[in-house]
């Protein structure tokens, strides 16, 4: 059916939301919630995740730590700098490759994790309660681990 002169324009057909945009919005909202929850201990969620990786796996070359955290090497460096300045992480030359550095959790880093865990657990519970049972697991299973 064609429009006649004077008829109001038709609304364009509605498209479903862009999956990428929706996921990016959700990721930004989740990051903001975790960052706000961890603010009392002076950590951002990415920094907290780095500390937890080091606690779980022990000292790691920075490139491997970046892989484990799903960050590129330069972003990892920007996240490690404040952690090293605060004494939460120690960086040393890799004994196997003098060009590389190894990151290790310090005692202060272990204490920071302990201080942050109650805040992290609270936001985990709050966000988890807003998701349908199994929704996060289904999303993780549906998306590739690496692009």
- Main sheet strand line-up: 1-3-2
String of helices and strands: HHEHHEEHH
The CATH architecture of the domain at 42-124 can be named as Orthogonal Bundle
Number of strands: 3
- CATH superfamily heading of the domain at 42-124: Winged helix-like DNA-binding domain superfamily/Winged helix DNA-binding domain
CATH class of the domain at 42-124: Mainly Alpha
CATH topology of the domain at 42-124: Arc Repressor Mutant, subunit A
Total helices: the number is: 6
The proportion of residues in beta strands is 5-15%
Which runs of at least 5 residues are low in confidence (pLDDT < 50)? none
The rough form would be described as: elongated
- What is the percent of helical residues? 55-70%
Largest sheet: 3 strands, antiparallel
Radius of gyration: 22 Å
| Average pLDDT number | 91
**Structural category:** mainly alpha
Question: CA-to-CA gap between the ends?
Answer: 44 Å
Concise account of the structure shown:
Helix content is 58%, strand content 12%.
If you had to describe this structure to a student in words, what would you say it looks like?
The chain is mainly α. The chain has a domain at 42-124: Arc Repressor Mutant, subunit A, CATH 1.10.10. Helix content is 58%, strand content 12%. It has six helices and three strands. It has helices at residues 19-38, 45-57, 62-68, 73-85, 107-130, 135-142, and strands at 60-61, 89-94, 97-105. The longest helix has 24 residues, at 107-130. Residues 16-147 form the HTH marR-type domain. This is HTH marR-type domain-containing protein. It comes from Methylobacterium hispanicum. One of its GO terms (molecular function) is DNA binding.
């Amino acid at each position: 059916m064609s429009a006649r002169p004077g008829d109001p324009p038709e609304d364009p057909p509605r498209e479903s939301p862009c999956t990428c945009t929706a996921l990016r919005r959700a990721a930004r909202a989740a990051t903001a919630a975790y960052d706000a929850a961890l603010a009392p201990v002076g950590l951002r969620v990415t920094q907290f995740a780095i500390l937890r990786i080091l606690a779980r796996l022990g000292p790691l070359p920075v490139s491997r730590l970046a892989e484990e955290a799903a960050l590129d090497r330069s972003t990892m460096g920007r996240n490690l700098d404040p952690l090293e300045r605060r004494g939460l992480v120690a960086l040393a030359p890799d004994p196997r490759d003098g060009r590389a550095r190894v990151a290790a959790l310090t005692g202060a880093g272990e204490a920071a994790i302990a201080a942050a865990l109650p805040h992290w657990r609270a936001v985990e519970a709050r966000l988890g309660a807003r998701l349908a049972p199994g929704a996060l697991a289904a999303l993780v299973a549906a998306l590739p681990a690496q692009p």
